[in-house]
Write a structure and sequence with these properties.
Layout lengths: L6 H24 L6 H25 L4 H29 L4 H32 L3 H19 L11 H9 L12 E4 L2 E4 L2 H24 L5 H13 L1 H8 L9 H23 L4 E2 L2 E2 L5 H37 L1
Antiparallel strand pairs: 1-2, 3-4
Helix pairs in contact: 1-4, 1-8, 2-3, 2-8, 2-9, 3-7, 3-8, 3-10, 3-11, 4-7, 4-8, 5-7, 5-10, 7-10, 10-11
């Protein structure tokens, strides 16, 4: 897995991403109120706009299909990340995180997961470079994940369970039971103690890493450029926190989200397997010709699936609301 970008571009890009992360931290530090819908909308548009400008720069100045690959990868990563929000909502409710502290918790948890995802991406890139048959494994894993996601259906509280790491942290760390605003460290009876926010941040970060096991193989199915994989993941994660505050309460209306995501994962999984077969000089299986699935076809399929999923979900929600209203009138 290689990148067509020069070392100078890599350095500038990483510096730019770090600057955005630092700017975000300054904004959080100065905010003395809970995040409003207006705040969240403004920041979601800001981060989506940044991703759009980055894509435009790739279309104008980068050779090959880098621009199209980034757009497809970004949309895929962002849409798969939306599923994380269900778990974030459950974690926040389970730990009863104060409203003022939620922004800080998500920020730290997502930054930690960005670093861990970078390690996963580099490991995946090294595996692909060492052996092309890794595509078979990634493809089969994505198809398996798609089937599992379709069968499991909607997210609920069972999607989050405290794992052995979280339980171990509870036993080892000097934790107090109560929150102290948005502080991670406080003093109790003259002793420095960690607040429960440390556990919440760890849970958010681990949830993001677990979801990366699905999303990273998915983007490998769209591009083998390490630069595109890293930047698409970074831009998708940077806008995820604001999206939590914007649509956290609306997620229940997107009832077919898991169905749409399972279709996308299955498509990319099959695409990876076909590419692996082509790499093994197998272009036909019996009378069936294995087509080449280009990046524009992938992008169109992903966008189309998300559009159909969203429209179908909203129609079902509206229909259910009308039925509930009729039932209430009848009961009256």
């Amino acid at each position: 897995m290689v990148s067509v970008m020069s070392p100078a571009v890599w350095v500038l890009t990483i510096a730019g991403l770090l600057a955005i992360v630092a700017f975000d931290l300054i904004v959080i530090a100065r905010r003395n109120h809970t995040v409003t819908i207006k705040d969240a909308t403004r920041w979601v548009l800001f981060y989506v706009g940044l991703a759009g400008l980055f894509a435009l720069g790739l279309f104008l100045f980068s050779p090959g299909q880098s621009g199209s690959e980034f757009v497809a990868g970004y949309i895929t990563e962002y849409s798969l990340s939306v599923d994380n929000l269900f778990v974030f909502v459950i974690i926040m409710a389970r730990f009863a995180v104060p409203s003022l502290a939620q922004d800080k918790v998500l920020y730290i948890g997502i930054v930690v997961s960005m670093l861990l995802r970078a390690v996963f991406i580099l490991a995946g890139a090294a595996a692909i470079s060492a052996a092309s048959w890794v595509f078979y494994i990634f493809g089969a894993f994505l198809v398996y994940t798609a089937v599992r996601l379709a069968i499991e259906g909607e997210n609920d509280e069972s999607d989050f369970q405290e794992n052995v790491v979280i339980r171990g942290m509870r036993r080892i760390l000097p934790l107090q039971h109560d929150y102290d605003g948005a502080k991670l460290v406080t003093r109790t009876d003259g002793r420095r103690m960690l607040t429960p926010l440390v556990i919440v941040i760890s849970a958010i970060g681990m949830a993001n890493v677990i979801f990366a096991l699905d999303s990273i193989p998915a983007i490998f199915g769209l591009t083998q450029d390490a630069y595109i994989v890293l930047t698409a993941n970074a831009f998708a994660l940077m806008g995820l926190r604001q999206l939590y505050f914007l649509i956290g309460g609306l997620l229940e209306r997107v009832v077919y989200l898991n169905v749409g995501l399972s279709v996308i994962l299955a498509f990319i999984g099959v695409k990876l397997i076909i590419e692996a077969l082509h790499g093994s000089h197998i272009d036909d299986i019996g009378a069936i010709h294995l087509p080449h699935i280009g990046i524009l076809t992938s992008l169109g399929f992903i966008v189309g699936t998300l559009f159909v999923t969203t429209v179908a979900s909203l129609l079902k929600s509206a229909r259910d609301n009308r039925r509930e209203a009729i039932r209430i009138k009848i009961d009256e």
